[in-house]
Amino acid sequence: MKAISGSLGGIMEASCLQPIDVIKTRLQLDRSGNYKGILHCGATISRTEGVRALWKGLTPFATHLTLKYSLRMGSNAVLQSAFKDPETGKVSGHGRFLSGFGAGVLEAVIIVTPFEVVKIRLQQQRGLSPELLKYKGPVNCARMIIREEGFCGLWAGVAPTVMRNGTNQSAMFTAKNAFDVLLWKKDEGDGRVLQPWQSMISGFLAGTAGPICTGPFDVVKTRLMAQSREGGGVLKYKGMIHAIRTIYAEEGLLALWKGLLPRLMRIPPGQAIMWGVADQIIGLYERRYLQLSTL
């Protein structure tokens, strides 16, 4: 049930927030200062490529979020069950943190990396005329990457993605439960159903810490995923550590947090939307299950 609730929340999030993700990707790939900020980037894309360009990569993004949240919520629930106290049935803060990290690592390796490689390759293309674009769509993009770079090309940037998602999810699940208890006196599994606005506030607050802590991993992930061996060229970045050192040397320390503002504009609202949907489904299921189990 938690896997299903996560997938439905992911569909809603992707539909609402795709333009912010496109802007974030363009800013992170901008090494020459073409974009002056979020508004300038969005306006430039709309003016030069059309408004539809702000939804580039929506298909892989929506599919990726649906599968990612399904795996994240489901695996986190399974992992938490291993950390439950056999007498009280409660999960400690330490167990919740490790469960979140494990769920983040699983989603990064199995789902996030290949889908984000395709999404970023599509998003970095300028223009809308199909005949001028190298990649014609997500399936064509995946096929070309495999043909030109091998199957492992779909897992470019997997190391920083694992670090980013593991850290993000360990913080997010721990913070979400803490805010539910602190703000609404809601304990997981107590049968109560929070109002959607309450879930959205908790989800929004829980989604703010991750982007700040994992900004460098996200920038490095994007740079590694965007580069290709087209024409047999040499890759600029050799790996996660080399990319961090190169970006720092060439662009300065703050470049490792490029795209942070659009990430903060996308991730906390995205978590608010996802939890607003997921908590309703989970809460109604828990209440029905608990009611039936007491009959």
TrEMBL record:
User: What family is this protein classified in?
Assistant: Belongs to the mitochondrial carrier (TC 2.A.29) family.
Q: What is this protein called?
A: Mitochondrial succinate-fumarate transporter 1 isoform C
Molecular-function GO terms, alphabetical: succinate:fumarate antiporter activity
User: Where in or outside the cell?
Assistant: Mitochondrion membrane
Q: Which domain of life is it from?
A: Eukaryota
**Solcar repeat start-end pairs:** 1-82, 94-182, 194-284
**Quick one: a GO cellular component term?**
mitochondrial membrane
Q: How does it sit in the membrane?
A: Multi-pass membrane protein
What PROSITE patterns does the record point to? SOLCAR
Q: Mainly localized where?
A: mitochondrion
Keywords assigned by UniProt? Membrane, Mitochondrion, Repeat, Transmembrane, Transmembrane helix, Transport
For the keyword Membrane, the answer is: yes
Q: Which organism was this protein described from?
A: Glycine soja
Claim: Repressor is one of the keywords in the record: no
